[in-house]
Amino acid sequence: MWESAITAYLHYLSFMLAFGALVIENQMLKKDINLAEAWTVVMADAIYGLSAITIVITGILRVIYFGKGADYYLNSSVFYIKVGIFILVSLLSLYPTFSFLSWIKNLRDNKPPHIELPKLQRLSWLIKGELIGLAFIPLFAALLARGIKLFLTLCSFLEKN
């Protein structure tokens, strides 16, 4: 029972850390970013990446060992939507992560990155997209935990109207 509780705790904590790291990235990212702010963005992105990896590992453990059983999850469209959103968020994060990694050489030479406005806007929109996607994951987790079948619920709603 302890393993289940610790796995769930790490899953939730990692989700909160990932969300918080993205909020920090969003707040610190600006055109005239200084050296300290740039390092903060790079470190926040590293925390985000480690948190995302922990979310995946603990999520797999919860599906296979500590949840309602793999059949429960794998037979739920809500589960696939939730995982799909996570994959989409992960894909959206690739461009910002590679951009921030490209700053490290200059940061080590005590030079802040120069960010052109179009790139800044692209990074900002991608991070906001990640935040929006992450904000929907707990909704689908709550639906999944309660056994709500999204497709069947939608069909019965449409039949009544």
UniProtKB/TrEMBL annotation:
The keyword Transmembrane helix applies. Keywords: Membrane, Transmembrane, Transmembrane helix. It comes from the Bacteria. It holds the Pfam family DUF2214. The chain crosses the membrane at residues 6-25, 46-67, 79-104, 125-148. InterPro entries: DUF2214_membrane (IPR018706). This is Membrane protein. It comes from Nostoc piscinale CENA21.
